[in-house]
Amino acid sequence: MKTLIKNIFNPARSIKVKEFPLASCILSPASLFLVSFILFPGAALSQTPAQLEALQSELEALSIRTERLQDVEEIEILQRSYGYYVDKSLWYSL
Length: 94
Hints:
The chain has 94 residues and is mainly alpha-helical. Helix content is 66%, strand content 4%. The longest helix is centred in the C-terminal third of the chain and has 39 residues, at 49-87. The radius of gyration is 19 Å and the shape is elongated. It starts with a helix and ends in a 7-residue tail after the last helix.
């Protein structure tokens, strides 16, 4: 439970929801789970073990994909910053 609560407020493990009307809204995987459990409480209880395992593996795959996309985004930010400093001849600021 501590890990679940820690992940809800951990911005490093969060997902930026761009399709959501509130574009600045940031949700972590744990908070998405909590929201879905609150909205659809019976959905998680009516699953068979095989379905739950499939959902768990899909969640892990999506988690890995999200981390990779966040890594790509951070690399692009770094490349833009480096390009700016090189373009402005700010060698000592690098």
